[in-house]
Structure formats: C-alpha cells, structure tokens
Amino acid sequence: MDILTDYKDLVGKKIVFSHMAQFAEQITLATEDGCVIMATFDYDEMAEESRVRVMYPHSVIQVLERHEWIRNELGRLGIFDIEKYKEEQRIKQEKEKEELRKRQEVKELAEYARLKAKYEK
User: Which of 23, 49, 84, 98 is most open to solvent, judged by the fewest CB atoms within 10 Å of its CB?
Assistant: First the structure.
C-alpha cells in the first residue's frame, strides 16, 4: 500500500480503479498492487490552460477522509485501507525517530569522549 507522487511510477502497473467524474476536483487512479495516485488541475488566471499536478500523500489522505465513496470503493476492492496506511506510516515514523535517537546518542557519546580526553589531561 503506497501513495505515488510521480505519474511515471504508474509505468508497468495495472490500473484497477479510476475515478474521474466530469466536474471532480481530482482524478484518482489505483493499481492492483495497492498504489494510489491523485492529481488535480491547476488553471491559469484566464482559465485557458490547465496543468495536471500530482497530489502529495498528506493531501491524498485528506481527500480520502472527505470522500467516503472513494474510500469505501478502494477498501471494498482491497486496494487501499486508509486506517492500515496510517498505522503503517505511524510505525515507520516511530522507527525513523528511534534511528535518529540512536544516531544522536552515538554522536553525543563520541563528542563526550573527545571532550573528556581533551580536558582531563
């Protein structure tokens, strides 16, 4: 389960869900391996030209939380479970914090040893 941030990551994947309503704010695509990508359209001031912008993961989560139908369809198809994704991200963030804490501790111990050697002579 992943949220894609680059449309090029779709190459070689099989799309099994799409939501592109006529007046929708965004388009949603999901692949059979559990990846989701959402994009919006940015218009210039004159509304003559538009540009597609892939949404960041936090924005995708916000959209999924607001749009019950999309969230339920992705869950029903077994493609993407928002609660499971949030839990995976929480665990990943905790692991990153723990690694950072360990690296900081090693760095502090090395600095302590250096200062101890310097000032105890």
Answer: 23
What angle do the packed helices 57-66 and 68-76 form, to 10 degrees?
100
What pLDDT score was predicted for residue 47? 64
Give Rg (Cα) of the chain: 22
pTM over 0.85: no
The residues with which 40 forms a beta bridge, in sequence order, are: 26, 53
- Return d(Cα 88, Cα 64) in angstroms, integer: 16
Last residue of a domain, one of 49, 65, 80: 80
Collect all residues with Cβ–Cβ distance below 8 Å to 99 and sequence separation of at least 6: none
How far apart are alpha carbons 22 and 81 in whole angstroms? 25
DSSP letter, residue 1: -
Each residue of 39-49: pLDDT tens digit? 998 777 766 77
**Do the bridges between strand 35-43 and strand 2-3 make them parallel or antiparallel, or are there none, so unpaired?**
parallel
Q: Give the largest Cα separation in the chain, rounded.
A: 77
